[in-house]
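Review form for a predicted model. The reviewer records the input and the model, then writes brief findings.
Reviewer: anonymous (R2)
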Amino acid sequence: MDTRQDELRRDLDATLQARKELGKEYESELVDSFLTRLESRMDARLDARVKRQASERMDDYEPEHRHRPHRSGWGSGRPGSRLAVISLAFAIPLTAIASNPEGGGLTGLLACWAGITGVNLAAAFADRRARADRMDREDRRPRGDWD
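Model under review:
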C-alpha cells in the first residue's frame, strides 16, 4: 500500500515540477494528464478487487455438479443407467426361466417383465426427483449483488 502511495506522490510531484517549468499555460493539460493516470490506477485497483470478490463468492456457492463433468448415457455412472444395464442382463435368464412351462409360461413371462419394468421406472423417477431436489437447493441459495 505504501509503494502505491509513494508512486502517486512522485507522480504528483513530477506534475507540479513540470507546471513550474512549463508555466501556467500548460496547467490544464498537466492536471488532465495526472487525473487520467490517477483514474487508470483506481480502475485497475477496482477491477482487481471486483475479480477477487467475485472469485470468493463463486468459491462459496460452487454447485456440486460443476466439480464433476456431466456425463449421460449407459456409461454415465448414474445409478439409473447402471440399474438399466444390470436389469437387462438379468432379464435374459429370467425370461428363459419364466417363459418355461414349468416356470409359469406366458403368465410368468408377463410377471417377470412387469417386475423388471417396475424396478426401472421406480429408479428413473427416484433419479428424476433427486435431480429436481438438487436444483431446488441451488435455487434456495442466498443471492448476492453479483447474481
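Findings: Helices lie at 2-22, 27-60, 79-99, 105-139.
Further findings: The chain has a mean pLDDT of 77.
Recommendation: see findings above.
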